[in-house]
Design goal:
Number of helices: 12
Order of helices and strands: EHEHEHEHEHEHEEHHHEEEEEHEEHHE
Structural class: alpha/beta
Largest sheet: 10 strands, mixed
Shape: globular
Strand content: 15-25%
Distance between the termini: 39 Å
Helix content: 25-40%
């Protein structure tokens, strides 16, 4: 059990979109104290100004850890640095909050989890949808539909300006169906609680502004041991269509549950980070038929009062991080789930590149 009377001193590594949101959480929530901001570019100066200009700034992670001696490190850099920064933090006896994906390879993710166990320090991965009441309800209601399940999800983003710059940078190391898809693969695995047996995926490179080996549109299909199937698609870039870009739907023998984001699914919203997590309404359709084979029950609409915005979701992630440390929560399943969803996502990546079905043993 950690000393709960003192604040958790956190070193923030990466000060872009997500790093900034996590830093705001540490800055505003009690029981947290930022001990430094780290980035290679100017983002740390901009973030520091936003937070009042009082925090030490660093270009180098080693120097920052050595000088600030933090209790915890928050990592929101590009995925190709996640493994090395996380392992470094654990070697320095720090807890780690890390944005997904845990690493840019399955083996790297396994090394991060192993390092957390060796150091006996907490590893929390930024699966933001796990902290959203509507998504928790979505997954809970899927358990009432029977088996097998059919899961249909996508998040296509028509991006320009700063968002297209972000997407191009991300595609320097990962494809959209890996970087973004791990969220929705994680949701599918929570819905089925069954092992995947095989994946197949397709992809297309629609711009020469990304590396030759990568693609900015991808679609994956998963089969599970229990007979459930799911697909997910993600496209990034100025050419992406905003028609049907937000689909979150599951059905089984007893009916269907759908997230219906009437506003967030509207034209011009596909690149908005705020709208990615906005749910608005859940529609529960009952498959029961009466003696005339007409629907016996009307659809149920569920509108949860608790609809946190993106910043509040980040706040909740950090409260969970603090709780995991103070209450010494067993996070072994959390780490296994993060590695598992990444393993599935990279298998999909392999399928895109080879054109073949990838089987899990």
């Amino acid at each position: 059990m950690e000393n709960q009377s003192k604040s958790l001193r956190v070193l923030v590594v990466g000060c872009g979109n997500m790093g900034s949101s996590h830093a705001i959480a540490y800055h505003t929530l009690t029981r947290f104290e930022i001990c430094g901001l780290v980035s290679k570019g100017k983002s740390k100066e901009k973030l520091n100004d936003k937070l009042g200009g009082k925090y030490p700034l660093f270009d180098d992670v080693d120097k920052a850890i050595s000088e600030t001696k933090p209790d915890a490190v928050c990592i929101s850099t590009y995925p190709d640095t996640h493994e090395s920064y996380a392992v470094k933090a654990f070697e320095n006896r720090c807890h780690v909050f890390i944005e997904k994906p845990v690493a840019d390879s399955v083996e790297g993710a396994e090394r991060v989890v192993a390092a957390s166990k060796k150091a006996n320090k907490k590893l929390v991965v930024g699966y933001i949808l796990r902290h959203h009441p509507s998504w928790e309800k979505f997954i809970e209601l899927s358990g009432q539909l029977g088996k097998p399940l059919v899961m249909r999800m996508n998040l296509n983003q028509q991006s320009d300006g700063a968002m297209w710059t972000l997407h191009r940078n991300l595609m320097g190391s990962l494809s959209p169906i890996v970087d973004c898809g791990v969220h929705y693969i994680d949701v599918m695995c929570q819905m089925t609680r069954s092992k995947p047996t095989q994946v197949y995926a397709i992809g297309a490179r629609l711009t020469e502004e990304i590396p030759a080996g990568n693609y900015n549109y991808g679609q994956l299909q998963i089969r599970f041991e229990d007979g459930s199937v799911g697909w997910y698609e993600a496209g990034w870039g100025p050419m992406v269509s905003e028609t049907a870009f937000f689909v979150k739907d599951v059905f089984g023998p007893k009916g269907s549950v759908s997230i219906v984001a009437k506003d967030a699914g509207g034209e011009g919203k596909s690149s908005s980070i705020e709208s990615h997590t906005k749910t608005e309404s859940i529609r529960f359709h009952h498959a029961d038929l009466d003696k005339d084979e007409k629907f016996a029950r009307a659809d149920t609409w569920i509108n949860l009062e608790d609809e946190p915005d993106h910043q509040e979701l980040c706040n909740r992630e950090q409260r969970y991080f603090l709780k995991s440390i103070n209450d010494d929560l067993d996070l072994s399943a959390h780490g296994e789930d993060a590695v598992n969803s990444l393993r599935i996502a990279f298998a999909c990546d392999e399928s895109v590149r080879t054109g073949k079905v990838v089987y899990f043993t």
